[in-house]
Design goal:
15 strands; three-stranded antiparallel β-sheet; alpha/beta; 2 domains; eight-stranded parallel β-barrel; globular; monooxygenase activity; disordered N terminus; oxidoreductase activity, acting on paired donors, with incorporation or reduction of molecular oxygen; TIM Barrel
Length: about 450
């Protein structure tokens, strides 16, 4: 590949990552190009496409229990997907530079074992490991661990923050040559011993975080290297970006020490009209009549199976205490959400299905390859994001067109790398090296 032209120097570079889809209704299962969600070949194809596109990392979501709706496994969950760290260890052997990011729950895992597994992945991949730190406070997930709802919701971030801090102490406890004894005495963990895996090549694997609450933003500012955000619009993205970045100074960190990368979808067409038509069709496929009712039931907290998806919204109010779904995020204020949806449906004459499509099925970037490249570059240039985590609607070929048609245009604009210049994920992201504390240096 060619090197960057000097005229492009000084422009903000875009960071890109690939999300393997599957959970929720992003994936269009009915498309004839839709492949397996569990075969290793699907993961290999998407990862190699991302690496061909010079992406920073490949991102795997994960849940610890299959979600349920009306007591049955939720139709849109993937059954049989391999465990993330195991799968990424296998992908390390068939990729060379691509970062490998695993979602691992900090509520139901212990720091010592997590630190061992992440350090092992970092060694196997030559410094490409990342940990997306997630939490869970629900007893439904906890039943798999004989713990139930052992942790109050308010404590989930305090445990997560201490879990990350403890893992970093363990990674730091192995200076050059041999390990030194460690001891951590905190609110959630009281452990001591000797860590049995050498210090990872990155020092600390990259930490990713996706919480949007005030606690989540503070946790990101204090401990994360990357934020996986959901703010796709320019104004909302700029507000979130500014809010999280301003918190960094309190922890002795610089704005460039944390990368904010919203999850986005892309629909390409040869013309703007074709792209819009394709996007509308994808939204219709993503929100089937059944999916529309499932989504509505999550807001209303009631069995709405008797309603016609092509008919009007229910005239009954949501039941705030209703519990038809397990393992899904509860709607914070269902009465307010229902009021907004009713106002929208009345103003536009929308059915249940049309309302769900309108409120939940939007694509982030729609247009010709040139228009999408320009809009992405504008988002980063105007401080709405540092990059994007692309969530395709097809497995495993959903990023093929983007890599073939958009990445070259981003490179021509000087907005994206034309080659990998480093070998580790920290180098790809432009993050500072994880320095070992002086008291444990060998």
């Amino acid at each position: 590949m060619t090197h960057d032209h000097g005229a492009h120097r000084g422009r903000k570079r875009i960071h890109l990552a690939a999300h393997f889809p599957g959970v929720n209704n992003t994936t269009v299962w009915a498309d004839p190009r839709s492949g397996s969600q569990i075969d290793f070949s699907s993961f290999v194809h998407l990862a190699r496409t991302a690496e061909r596109g010079l992406f920073d990392f490949f991102f795997l979501a994960e849940g610890l229990r299959l979600r349920e709706h009306h007591g049955r496994v939720h139709d849109l969950d993937v059954v049989g997907r391999p465990e993330s760290l195991t799968l990424l260890s296998a992908l390390a052997a068939v990729t060379d530079r691509l970062g490998l990011a695993a979602t691992v729950n900090a509520t139901f895992n212990e720091p010592y074992e997590l630190a061992r597994r992440l350090a092992s992945l970092d060694h196997l991949s030559g410094g490409r490991a990342a940990w997306n730190v997630v939490t869970s406070s629900d007893a439904f997930t906890g039943e798999n661990f004989r713990r139930g709802g052992f942790l109050d919701r308010a404590d989930r971030y305090t445990r997560a923050a201490e879990s990350v801090a403890t893992a970093r102490e363990l990674w730091d406890s192995w200076p050059a040559g041999a390990p030194r004894p460690f001891a951590h005495h905190g609110r959630h963990f009281d452990i001591s011993g000797t860590f049995d895996v050498a210090r990872p090549p990155q020092g600390h694997p990259v930490i990713i975080q996706a919480g949007d609450s005030a606690e989540g933003r503070e946790f990101a500012a204090s401990a994360a290297d990357v934020v996986f955000s959901r703010h796709g619009g320019l104004d909302a993205g700029r507000a979130f970006h500014a809010d999280v970045k301003r918190r960094l100074g309190a922890y002795g960190r610089r704005p460039e020490d944390l990368k904010i990368m919203p999850g986005v979808t892309v629909v390409l067409g040869d013309t703007a009209a074709e792209a819009q038509e394709k996007a509308a069709e994808i939204r219709r496929q993503q929100v089937s009549p059944q999916t529309a009712l499932l989504t509505l039931e999550q807001v209303w907290g009631r069995d709405l199976s008797a309603y016609d998806p092509d008919g009007p919204l229910p005239d009954i109010d949501p039941d705030p205490a209703g519990d038809v779904a397990h393992g899904r995020v509860r709607v914070a204020d269902p009465l307010a959400v229902a009021a907004r949806w009713r106002a929208l449906a009345e103003a536009k004459g929308l059915s249940i299905r049309q309302t769900v499509i309108e409120t939940s099925g939007r694509q982030s970037f729609i247009g010709t390859p040139g228009a999408v490249a320009a809009e992405m570059a504008e988002f980063v240039a105007k401080g709405a994001a540092d990059g994007f985590i692309l969530v395709p609607h097809l497995t495993p070929g959903g990023l093929d067109d983007f890599v073939d048609r958009v990445v070259p245009l981003l490179q021509e604009r000087g907005a994206f790398r034309t080659e990998y210049t480093g070998t580790t994920l920290r180098e790809h992201l432009g993050l500072p090296a994880a320095r070992q504390p002086d008291h444990v240096k060998g």
